[in-house]
Amino acid sequence: MAVNTDITVTSPLLPPLDEFIPYLEDIWKRKWITNNGFYHQELEKALSEYLKIPYISLFTNGTLPLMVALQALRISGEVITTPYSFVATTHALWWNGIKPVFVDVEEKNGNLDTDKIEAAITPKTTAIMPVHVYGNPCNTEAIQLIADKYGLKVIYDAAHAFGVEKDGKSILIAGDISTLSFHATKTYNTVEGGALICHDKATKKRIDYLKNFGFAGETEVVMPGINGKMDEIRSAYGLLNLKYVDAAIEQRKKIASLYRQQLQDIPGIKMVDDISHVKSNYSYFPVFINKDEYGISRDELYEKLKSRNIYGRRYFYPLISTFSPYRGLDSATEDNLPIAHKLADRVICLPMHHGLNEEDIKLIVSIINGGR
Ligand SMILES: Cc1ncc(COP(=O)(O)O)c(C=O)c1O
Fold it and tell me: What pLDDT is recorded for position 50?
């Protein structure tokens, strides 16, 4: 089989295959392959410890916990959210019959601009759904103050924020619920997978009913749930992969620092600020291209890299608010979202994963440098 030498934006963190085989053999012996089995319970325990959070529920992907969070907190009406995210954030609202209300983001990191939230609140607003974009923490304190003032719930889409800590604490403790994605492209993956983090036993119980069709015991259904259960094979894979995630994050940290050193003096290339009080997972390395200063546009650079088999991704372009299901909303206009548009038009996420080395970064930077 030909080995792919492309440099891709990400590469899945795969545990050693020979170490996975004994897990599979054990599952075969147990003859229990889904429905809250041994490995599902073990992974919940291990993640709860690793992430320093007491209540976590595993899911088959990172979209379902968003949908279930909205159900669990009985959110309705309007929810304030960001257009600068992966489309699943807004889709989760739509699937619950909720109207998304887009608020602009901050230029420094792409997170919801907390100064603009209050103006978007109406009598129908019931919650705020921010995203820790690229794993950079939102201003959780300001968001909580607003939520408390208006009696709103807060659901964080923390899909990018596995293991991220602010001032020594997990950012997953912020708000009422946070959700994670363990998709193959993420810093930590279970192939496909996700999780919901809540802060009390009663909510976890409700969530576990909701992800299992609403079953509370063998013969009773207490709510109209869905099927969101993670199976035993992916749970076991996740348990094994957890052993390797710290080393992967360490390598990502090195890559991020090489990019920072080598890109800092190139005019027209802006990076997200390095935030020292944050324990990052280095999940993405976005750069923002100012054509006037850099010389060529973001798309021209994107194509140039591609022609050399280097595949960045334009996360998050196009903005969610420009997609056909959402572009008719009052809050979806460019006038309302100038910064989000600016970032979406300028961003490229450069290759960032545990498999990259110094030579790769040198090559990428040399193309960026010579690209003008
Ligand atoms: C911000 C954000 N939210 C939600 C999701 C959905 O996660 P999943 O692909 O695991 O369903 C993603 C996934 O890529 C994401 O980036």
Answer: 98
